[in-house]
Amino acid sequence: MLIDLKIKNYALIEKLEMNPSPVLNIITGETGAGKSIMLGAIGLLLGNRADTKLLFNQEEKCVIEGVFDISSYNLQELFTKEDLDFDNQCILRREISPSGKSRAFVNDTPVTLDVIRKIGENLMDIHSQHDTLQLGDTSYQLNILDIYAGNTASMGNTTFDIYAGNLSYLRNYNESYRQYKKLESDYKKLTDQLAQAQKEHDYHAFLLNELDEAGLQENEQEELEEELKQLENAEDIKLKLTQAVQSLTESEFNITSALKDTVHTLSQLSAFSNKYEELRSRTESCMIELNDIAGELEDAERNTEADPERTLEVQERLNLIYTLQRKHQVQSNAELLQIQRELEEKVGSVLNLDTAIANTEKAMKAAEQEVLEKAAILSERRRASFETFEKELYTLLAELGMPNARIVIQHNEVAPSATGTDDISILFSANKGAQPQTLIKAASGGEFSRLMLSIKYMLADKTALPTIVFDEIDTGISGEVAVKVGKMMQQMAQKHQIIAISHLPQIAAQGDSHYFVYKHDTEDRTISRIKKLDDQERINEIAHMIAGANPSDNAYQSAKELLSL
């Protein structure tokens, strides 16, 4: 529950602090005094988006801080999941700088808005007039029935430990549904892929067959191009090789003979110095190397012959390779081989897709069956709660001055969706003999307020939410009904901290603590302030709420009587 709230530099609030009671807190004040501004600040604390236009002083940062006692609400797992240190006291803080930069903290640890939102929604539920309007939405009504039936095991918006390990009935169904939809999407993608692959299969198979028949080899192109050069220039090569051999071995002044004479001469000199022996050895090595070269040149010359048939064969093979390269728009044999491998995968993928589709279809049907089974359990639990929900809500509405109200839950079975196979609509009539209709058509503003309060009252025991904030949920009611609304809030406050903004004296008198929001004019601007009223101040404020600016003695007496109730 909220034990301390500080607001600094927000809208009309220069600085504000309140320490609400753990039970029922009432906030009153004139219209425009700043009650709703406080709710806006609390909304920022719970993760709402910030706007620098709301800074009281545009040159200073806005700070909103709430201290919560969370010792009894089993939030350790949530803090662990978000990698936050847990303490029995949790401090949420938002800071908005004049530049527009927003920062969020949980126990002085910087966090994202998403994290502070997850923490905050487990600490407070703010009911605004917008929520009352939401009551007309069928998806909102379905969520109400799920909480009532225990399908969400709700702690704020967090589900926990009642079914299938530690998931709620609704969460367990929803996870199965998401898995089914994923498999359904995968199946469609595979079938689309197969249809496209089948269109291209024949063409890819033709291209692959053409490359297979070509029998391409690594480095084949380079080797054939070199061989073709040899064949096309065989006569010139043979002539030059002959000349080279003759220069080395057969001419009058051939190199090998000269080297042989040099070796002989250096052998005679080697007796005079080791240097000459070294030179002899080196010259002899040169002679041996030249003899080897001459031998290889002779072999090359003997093996070089013009071969028109082989030349034609190599040319045709290269022409085939060049044609394939142009067709596939590549420059090398290696790229052609890569294309061949890719075509093999594409052609083979059609067969692989058939297997993948069959496996995915089987898994999808199993997942669909699981979804239907879990949807049936969820639906059965919902339908089982209809009668008790209708009776309990009718009883509460009768106590709030609507004895002729009728509540009927209309149910239709629909195709599986994220929320199950149920289409729910709460039908309502306030007057005897009137046919129940949808809430949008049948309920007035005051009736909506009483409906919402009754539903909140019914759901309060089914949630572990520490703090509930009501923003003028008493709109459209008065008199004895207002007294009963206050009593309902008192009963809710036995298990939840309640903070209620009200304009009715009957409700204001029910509070354990009463705060008054008012405007204070300084020399240059108007600011909002809040104060906790003592006993006499409460009498004065409630008397003003009854009779206006100048209450009579009767108004003061009525205020005392309301407080004594």
From TrEMBL:
Pfam families, per the entry: SMC_N
Any GO BP annotation: SOS response
Record's keyword annotation contains Coiled coil: yes
Keyword DNA damage in annotation: yes
Key words of the record: ATP-binding, Coiled coil, DNA damage, DNA repair, Nucleotide-binding
Domain RecF/RecN/SMC N-terminal: 5-521
GO molecular-function terms, A-Z: ATP binding
Role this protein plays: May be involved in recombinational repair of damaged DNA.
Descriptive protein name: DNA repair protein RecN
Naturally occurring in which organism (per UniProt): Pontibacter mangrovi
Lineage of the organism: Bacteria, Pseudomonadati, Bacteroidota, Cytophagia, Cytophagales
